[in-house]
Description:
This protein is mostly helical. The chain has helices at about 1-5, 10-25, 25-35, 40-50, 55-90, 105-140. The longest helix is centred in the C-terminal third of the chain and has 34 residues, at about 105-140.
Amino acid sequence: MDYVGNSGEGSTAWSEHSKWQHTTMWGKITLALMKFGNNSFISAIVDALREDNTNNAQKYVPVFASMMVVIVAVVTAYAIGKIIQIFVGKEIVINQEIIIEEEVKLSDLIAAKKDKDAISNANESKKEKKRRNARSKTSK
């Protein structure tokens, strides 16, 4: 970064960048990641993985890292689902009312009443026949 510090434009750009890092949320995140990457413990792990070509850790660390990414994604999706379920509720109930409107003509009503009367008269006559049959059997 010395070449940036030598020119007049670069120094303003660098100060703008530094100001961005200290004042914005994303700038603070990049600073935190840079500090994490410059950590001596992380550097020691990376150096140990680079030194030995026959080390099995070189094979397993990327696999472990990708598995952790998948696990974090699944847990995040599960947590977001639970949060949404808190707001929505456990069950979604849909209430529907069905209203059937039917136009009935007066002539149809009169015909239906006549049919009903005819059926009730037929039932009464059947009952009378049964009573007569019962009386005639008891009188014999």
